[in-house]
Specification:
mainly beta, 11 strands, five-stranded antiparallel sheet, Jelly Rolls, single chain, six-stranded antiparallel sheet
Length: about 150
């Protein structure tokens, strides 16, 4: 398994140069490291911020599970989507509102066919809200299918 959380620094994260705003590091409440976040007041409605995880050395014809923590905090904060590089333009995962401010777990299956997935994109779309944030943390890639809850 590969730990791509932001405190470890073992994975290759890149800000998208063609989007409207960047994701920024935010300190965790517990003070142990940080996560990546987009505050609700950044940019204008429908603006996008994309954070790309570049994947290298994934074996063809095998499956992986991307597991991550996410939080959509605040009213009408926007949308969080996950895209796989070779599956554009439809997102493989999307969430548009949090029931509360809690962190939740998202999972995405990555099947390596003849074409290998070489990046995963976390896209934040700005909503109408002015408070809260969209956050992503603890991004882990494990080989095999996603475990059941």
């Amino acid at each position: 398994s590969v730990d791509c959380s932001f405190s470890q620094g073992v994975c290759d994260w890149k800000q998208d140069a063609d989007d409207d705003f960047d994701w920024n590091p935010a300190d965790r409440d517990r003070g142990d490291g940080y996560y990546m976040a987009v505050p609700a007041f950044v940019g204008h409605k429908k603006d996008m911020g994309r954070l790309n995880l570049l994947l290298t050395n994934l074996k063809p014809k095998s499956s992986y599970c991307l597991i991550f923590s996410y939080r959509l905090a605040g009213e009408r904060v926007g949308k969080l989507r996950v895209f796989l590089a070779n599956k554009k333009p439809a997102p493989v995962w999307e969430e548009n509102k949090g029931k509360d401010e809690k962190w939740r777990t998202g999972k995405v299956e990555i099947f390596q066919g003849a074409e290998t997935t070489n990046s995963v994109t976390f896209e934040s779309e700005r909503g109408k809200g002015k408070t809260g944030e969209i956050g992503v943390d603890n991004v882990i890639l494990i080989s095999g299918l996603c475990p059941e809850d």
